[in-house]
Amino acid sequence: MRIKSKSKKSVLYGLTLLLSAGMVLSACGKNADNGGNTAASNSNTETSTEKPVELIWYTIGTPQKDVDKVMAEVNKYTSEKIGVTVKMNMLDWGDYDQKMKVMTASGEPMDIMFSASWAFDYVQNSRKGAFASLDELLQKEGKGITEVLDPAFLQGSKVDGHNYGIPANKELPAQEVWRFNKNLLDKYKLDIKGVGSLESLEPLLKTIKANEPTVTPFALDKNYVPYVPYDYIIQGLPMGVKLDSTDLKVVNVLETPEMKQALQTMRKYYKAGYVSAEAATTTSVSDLQTAGKWFLDRAATQPFADNAWSSSYGYPVVSTPASDSIIYNWSVMGSLQTISANSEHPDKAMAFLNLLNTDPYLRNLVDSGIEGVHYKKTADNRMENLADSKNYDMPTFSLGNIMLTYLNPSDPDNKWESFKEFNSAGKKAPTLGFNFDSSKVATELAAVQNVKEEFMSALYTGTVEPDEYLPKAVEKLNAAGFGKIIEEAQRQLDEWKAAQ
Amino acid sequence: MLKRRTRDFHQLSPVANALFHVIAASLAIIAVFPFLFVLIISFTDENTLARNGYRLIPEKWSVDAYHYIFQTGDSLLRSYGVTLFVTIVGTLISLCIITLYAYAISRKSFKYRGFFSFIAFFTMLFNGGLVPTYIVVTQLLDMKDSIWALIMPMAVNAFYIMIMRTFFSTMVPDAIIESGRIDGAGEFQTFIRLVLPLSLPGIATIALFSTLGYWNDWFNALLYIDNPDLVPLQSMLMRIENSMQFILQNSNNASLSSGILQNMPQDTSRMAMVVLATGPIILAYPFFQRYFVQGLTIGAVKE
Amino acid sequence: MLKTFFKDLIKNKAMLLMVLPGTIWFFFFSYLPMAGTVIAFKQYRYSRDGFLASILESKWVGLQNFKFLFSTSDAYIITRNTVLYNVVFIVLGLFFSVAMAVILSEIVNKRLSKLYQTGMFMPYFLSWVIVGYFVFSFLSTDRGVLNHILTSLGKDPVSWYSESTAWPYMLVLISLWKSIGYNSVVYLAAIMGIDKSLYEAAMIDGANKWQQIRSITVPMLTPLMTILTLLAIGRIFYADFGLFYQVPRDSGALYSVTNVIDTYVYRGLKTTGEIGMSTAAGLYQSFVGFVLIIASNAIVRKFNKDNALL
């Protein structure tokens, strides 16, 4: 007993000591490490002509097993061509935003990172200083990019007059469509030819409601916003400029006749049972879609989207336009690769991005993996996935110029031509290139966001009576300082316009 | 002999006992019921679920959800291993640090007990927030992508220290410690030989909490771990869940919705994740329960 | 003076050694990061030279970052909701956890008792998202169980997620349901640690079970109850985000009874992501908790010094 307790005691002592020593050591070790690192990187820059520079690349998507394997192949090519190797780190969709925020705020060493209007917000982080300005770099190392991209891409992704990211060459404008479950269209021999406005849906919805009690005629979730022809200054906040306006007047969209009418219509649909009773709190209608228990909804489209939807749901889906095709700031910022402000080698990073966006070999290597391992080529610009492609399945649109990528067996030959047509058909939104700086009204914005969340879903989905709740919402928004935000937006917009 | 006597006196009247049974049992059933549902839903066919909603006996059973998880998180077993290691090592380290600290500040003879109590207490209210902590862990302690980043940030919890301190000061009479001193034992010896056995229920409680804390932690891995081989179970499942949610919420993004949404059994696999994540750890509770035993009296320790 | 200090140190060396690992931990993982709280008074912008440079170069904004917490009429609602819910949770939670622990410890059949304990623990393992699912399957307007019952009784279905009256009760019930099992474990363990000879002595004096519970069990649990309550008071400005966000499905119509400080901050900063403002919110919550806890601790000290936290 005594011996045992003694040994226990010494174990405890030992553990304590070990722990404290470990902590001190790791702290010291880190310092020493740091010294070493800086020394190494210094010598790196000196000898950069011989030794390739390693770029740390963070991008979005479910981490793939074979990333390192493919990057090894990438490095063989790039080290020879531009003296660069890359280390790609993938962060999963749901983690990307949060983790990147923490990493940039703490000054983690990074070179290239993905950004967008919908993940790791491009405009906010440009303003906060997360990214390096690319104006000069584009001139020096990014000539290929400026040649490849539609000029609207670089114009629309300017923040305070500077470019901070390389937009992926993909669909440029945003166009809303009404999507229909074709099985039901066929069953009731409905025609979608004349369909366009929200109001024009009524006869179709009525038919479905009367005949298909288990189907949700109009599938929508809490993020649904009725389409009105306004260019929103901040995504999701009812403040914008009318699309065809020339005077760039910022208005409260809730008070516009278009929105009022849309809300009345939505209310009518809700009361008629076309909309799910829980629409205002539903985060996703994907269960309806898997079960095929919906008739129509609204979505953003791109060329050949109907095919993609049909194959992903397993039954035919067709669509018809619900809005014009407009180039918004946010649609331009759908996918960008940026260079970190603390990158040691911004020029090399730009050289890499330039190559990625112009060199078909590199682009397809990064996108589809190694030829003969992950895919096989079937024609000059066609490929077919091999079994191993499941270990390297990348989100194509996030990795730069998609128009260089090889076509899949199911893709039509004219896929990229159609994209180009789609892009050139887009009209520029009035505020394209203008981005609101919210730092002066951060307090008001936080309060307004809360009011917005309180009322908007219920109003937009028709869950509540607009005659009663719309005035309430407007009043509360104004009390929270919405007027001040609109004023500030107007001031900035006028300044921007004058500078054009 | 002693045992039988205590029973007789100690027992509740049959009526009260029955009443207690009813209360406890009904609460337990309410608590377990949703869990049962989770299990059933996880084995339900996704389409059937979308059509019929939750049902106790689904129209069609399916293991698709598990299939999907095993496929998406193909290193599931490895993740179990990481979690197991982190949980066991982490709990042991926590227990050592916490019990020692708590014991010291529970002793009236310790001159600086007030100071060290405050040191611990203060951290319960104020913390530096995410970014500063991240910097300390990654830049100062250099723990990024190391298993210690999953263990050390959670090793101490002032809340547990305060509970443990209360256990020590109420459950361990001063007389015992005095008797140890008279026997000539040092502080550590007294602590290990006399105090610990008396505080077993308290230690088991803290160990249980700590085990559950480590098992359920996913956030540290999200922050500190890039290496897929070091991702613990909860973190992997959380990653799948968060990403599923993210993609669904951004489903009006044309690029996202066209390719990635494919074949995602979301409701059922969400439930399957709960089953996979909690299945093993449910056994932890009965394990620690063994130490919630009565009967260690002062006499027993002295003998 | 210095000499007595060193003498004290040597006298307490064993104890000091015991607190050493914990103190080192607190230094690295709590006190060092605490310096970052200064962000609450800055408009935080990134510098390419790392975190310290970012802090130094960021602009001082005084109390500007705190303003959004008080700027609108919502300030009153979120404060009221947070505090009231917490008070109810503290009081009911304490009562039910202790009662449950006593019941479980008194049940004669120990095997069944353990089974009940394990069962009650289960909700702890369900995340709020999952709990929200089940609540929804009960309360959904068209497919919910509750409305099925109502309609079969000939009553009108209720649109639960836009009707706020019932929610305070539901949230309290759900919170208790989820936490009782976990919280009663501490008390159960404490009951198990009570010296049996005390009960034996009481029995010899002829005390019945109820008297024993009243005069031995409860008093022996008092220090623990006091400490846990004090600590809960310190967190009175914090709310369980999942309970108030996921369970009511973030329904705007219910904000008057579900919006709490944590959800308000989340919604307000979701788009701008100013760390300065989120740090400020945290500091505010901590500071109020600190003041309250020190005050209540002083009150506890007046009654019984041993039960106090500090």
UniProtKB/TrEMBL annotation, chain A:
Signal peptide interval: 1-26
Protein name as annotated: ABC transporter substrate-binding protein
Keyword Ribonucleoprotein: no
Keywords recorded for this protein, A-Z: Signal
All copies of domain DUF3502, residue ranges: 430-498
Cited Pfam families: DUF3502, SBP_bac_8
Lineage: Bacteria, Bacillati, Bacillota, Bacilli, Bacillales
InterPro entries linked to this entry: Bact_solute-bd_prot1 (IPR050490), DUF3502 (IPR022627), SBP (IPR006059)
Xref: PANTHER family: ABC TRANSPORTER SOLUTE BINDING PROTEIN-SUGAR TRANSPORT (PTHR43649:SF17), ARABINOSE-BINDING PROTEIN-RELATED (PTHR43649)
Transmembrane residue ranges: none
SUPFAM superfamilies in the cross-refs: Periplasmic binding protein-like II (SSF53850)
UniProtKB/TrEMBL annotation, chain B:
GO terms (BP aspect): transmembrane transport
Membrane-related topology note: Multi-pass membrane protein
UniProt cross-references to CDD domains, sorted A to Z: TM_PBP2
Localization per record: Cell membrane
Main location class: membrane
Family indicated by similarity: Belongs to the binding-protein-dependent transport system permease family.
Protein name (database record): Carbohydrate ABC transporter permease
Source organism: Paenibacillus montanisoli
